[in-house]
């Protein structure tokens, strides 16, 4: 395994996971503060177990899929996923849609859950954190499996995501409030660029295109996606809009 | 049933945000697959045309969304 493979797998996994863990942490904190920590953490644990089961089931199966098919399918999924993130990040940069604000998301979720926990098991608290962890975690699992398997570097991708998890959870425990200072849109922009470029590259490989400069064309794709998103976002940029969830 | 439908919608939502945008990408992938299957043109040019097409789709979608909001 080369350093380039490790970097190609670990970096997007780390950056994307940071964003997703921050979003999940906001909801877990909101539930913990308003409805109690027991159900909040139980929902989190159940979500993590569900995700671990998905990885345990689908991870090993990827070994049996031919590389060309894997590149094409994973590449296409990465392309849809990455270009969706990139478009949204460009529109947020252009102030066409509001930036995601963790403090507002926290306040909104807290207000929704106010009203006191019921006697006995608080299913609403459990289900809220479970759903948040599974949905945000699913994106992490997809990115780790997609980037890791296509670059043949599943372990570095997993380590990248794990470091992001430790970093975000550690910071969450330390500050005990939503991590609003994480530059989410900038991270989504970078990850969107990387995933779109990897997706395009692997789809091209799957279609048997010949990339000029071979693997080096990946760098050109990253520059191309980054520049187009940045220039288009700048051209349509307007006055900021009020941030919402 | 609603929970399953909700999860399915969330799953689709991971890849499809704006239907026009996702459909255009899908159509471009199909066109590229056809070009590849019939070995139309030089493979180097096919790679370049494929990439440029994706960049045009991205730029058009951002511009389109900005003008419609």
What would your notes on this structure say?
The complex is a heterodimer of chains A (245) and B (69). Chain A is mainly α. Chain A has eight helices and no strands. Helix content of chain A is 77%, strand content 0%. In chain A, α1 packs across α7, α3 runs antiparallel to α7 and α5 runs antiparallel to α6. Chain A is globular, with a radius of gyration of 19 Å. The N and C termini of chain A lie far apart (41 Å). The mean pLDDT of chain A is 85. With 69 residues, chain B is mainly α. Chain B has one domain. In chain B, 83% of the residues lie in helices and 0% in strands. Chain B has three helices and no strands. In chain B, α2 packs antiparallel against α3. The longest helix of chain B is centred in the last third of the chain and has 26 residues. The termini of chain B are far apart. The mean pLDDT of chain B is 87. At the A-B interface, α3, α5, α7 and α8 of A face α2 and α3 of B.
Write out key terms for the chains shown.
heterodimer, A: mainly alpha, 8 helices, 77% helix, 0% strand, B: 69 residues, mainly alpha
Helix count of chain B, per DSSP?
A: 3
Number of helices of chain A: 8
Helix content of chain A: over 70%
Ranges of chain A where pLDDT stays below 50 over 5 or more residues in a row are none
Q: Give the helices and strands of chain B as they follow along the chain.
A: HHH
From the spread of the alpha carbons, the general shape of chain A counts as globular
Oligomer: heterodimer
- Count of discrete structural domains of chain B: 1
Q: Helicity of chain B, in percent? A: over 70%
Largest sheet of chain B: none
Largest interface: A-B, 41 and 33 residues
**General shape of chain B:** flat
Instruction: Return the string of H and E elements of chain A.
Output: HHHHHHHH
Distance between the termini of chain B: 34 Å
Overall average pLDDT of chain A: 85
Strand content of chain A: under 5%
